[in-house]
Design goal:
alpha+beta; DNA Binding (I), subunit A; 5-stranded mixed beta sheet; 6 helices
Length: 209
């Protein structure tokens, strides 16, 4: 499939030891490939083979003929080239455990957009963040002191602790692992090959049709 936003499609990046280390845009991936800093990894039925950029360009015509819907495409003046789904860095073998930043988006992801008092799920625009120990009582911004709350529950609790407001949390807050915050919504057919390389301790890829 061809898309005006194809250059922004996501590409999984592996280190030299075939462990997933990041997700980058297709533009960044092609920059690494042009610098010979990476190779393309193509998977099929759990097996994989590697391609340099030149070899990948050479097979573009076959890909276009036999599996056009299995790829996103970038159109160049003389040809169309499939965007790789996975690349492997040739000179990087470290694995850095990603740090989870304390952000509103990550808090919503941790709490699955549920109010932690009434248990109902809301749109992000309908949720607020509540300090369990209110700031007026010395509460701080921390994973263990912030929860999602609907406007009604947050208003009811006010500047009190849950105990003072006679309210109970449905779950104690915690600092999540990377897998609780990194969710990439991807097409099942286009990106199922990622599952071959993902380390479930750090990554969760939500496959959707």
């Amino acid at each position: 499939m061809t898309s005006v936003s194809a250059i922004h499609q996501k590409v999984l990046v592996l280190n030299r030891g075939y462990s997933a280390v990041s997700v980058v845009s297709a533009r960044h991936a092609f920059t690494l490939l042009c610098r010979n800093a990476a190779e393309i990894i193509s998977t099929q039925d759990g097996h994989y083979e590697s391609f340099g950029l030149k070899d990948w360009v050479d097979v573009a015509a076959l890909q276009r003929e036999f599996e056009p819907d299995a790829h996103h495409w970038i159109r160049l003046p003389s040809l169309e080239i499939a965007i790789p789904k996975v690349i492997r860095l040739l000179g990087y073998d470290k694995f850095i455990k990603p740090k989870v930043k304390l952000t509103r988006r990550n808090l919503y992801a941790r709490d699955k957009n549920k109010c932690q008092y009434c248990g109902k799920r809301f749109q992000s625009s309908e949720l607020t963040l509540d300090h369990i120990v209110p700031r007026v009582q010395g509460g701080v911004n921390a994973w263990t002191n912030l929860v999602c709350a609907c406007l009604r529950c947050n208003t009811k609790k006010g500047g009190r602790t849950p105990k003072q407001a006679n309210m109970k949390l449905i779950r104690l807050p915690f600092k999540p692992n990377r897998c609780d915050t990194l969710k990439v919504r991807i097409g099942r057919k286009q990106y199922s090959s990622w599952k071959t390389f993902l380390n479930n301790a750090y990554w969760t890829i939500e496959l959707v049709d």
